[in-house]
Request: fold
Amino acid sequence: MSISDKVEKLLLRAEIGKALTREEIADLLRMPPAWAFELFAAADRVRKNEVGDAVFLRGIVEFSNYCTRDCLYCGLRKSNHAITRYRMSNDEILHRAEYIRKTGISTVVLQSGEDPFYSSDKVCRLIEKIRKETKLVVTLSIGERPLEDFKAFYQAGAERYLLKHETASRALYEYLRPGCLLKSRVSCLQFIKQLGFETGTGNMVGLPGQTFETLADDLLLMKSLNADMLGIGPFIPHPNTPLAGMENDGIDLTIRVLAMARLLTRNTNIPATTALATLHPQGRIFALQAGANVVMPDFTPEPYRYYYNIYPGKEKIQSPEIMVREMTEELYKIGRYIDFSAGTNLNLDHRKILH
Ligand code: SAH
Ligand code: SF4
Reply:
């Protein structure tokens, strides 16, 4: 069988939702560039059939850049003394949430480093306040916590949790996240899902030592977790980390992984990530035409947005107002539209388990 026959057969099977093996997924990820367009088109068709033409908005507020972890890839790692650390006050966070509400957006993502300053109680009071004052759907992205904290957050009214598994290679995960275990990350994700959270996971693409096979493992893990949201972004080397100066191969492989995620997981919410937009001016639009259906304008106020320097270039991302305006125009050109609702999700087998 020629390469093109093989790829064509695999793509057809993926598009109709047949399960693929690790090797088959790896083969699709490494396909020649001429075929990648077929992969993107197939993912775009599945996106249209499964979740429609709407693009959902999530307003993100990065409320603290303190972190006790030392992830080798991240500019917020505790050993990076070259950044200005900040914590937004509760009032500042609430004001941003109110502003997000005023723009018509229905969900806020509260993100931070792993910052123990925010006790379970503090986070719960914040969730309750935002729920009461703004009615926004609250998504948390604050890292690993004791299991009872996740339960408290859910009971306080948070409905979504983002915790990327980053890489499904145990050796790579444990090298890149000193002191952390992949199996703990996966247990957290399973627990979060079981509680009833809409659960987000995802990976970085282009990490040192990553292979097509380990990327296939990422995709199989996303599927086996029955995640509701998948954040798939390129790894962007940060100059103040041990991975400074590594090569970055651009966005093509990330978009391939994202397209495969759409084919394999069908109806999930998949953002066109900020990291894609950082690497390429058209990064978000390419992703939205290869399976993505969500964008996340950054509502972190100045000067904090410049200090939340997870990877270089992020600080140059447009203000949320400009981003939403430009996105509206760009989407119109490709027959898509912005949906300001929180967006439903279809993978919630365990919803409301606590009620
Ligand atoms: N502390 C929390 C949330 C903030 S980090 C956590 O780690 O889960 C949010 C995301 O930033 C991470 O999940 C990771 O995928 C991404 N990230 C960190 N460093 C990055 C880099 N150098 N390039 C691209 N993405 C990066
Ligand atoms: Fe901290 Fe998250 Fe960055 Fe790791 S990825 S150093 S946990 S902010």
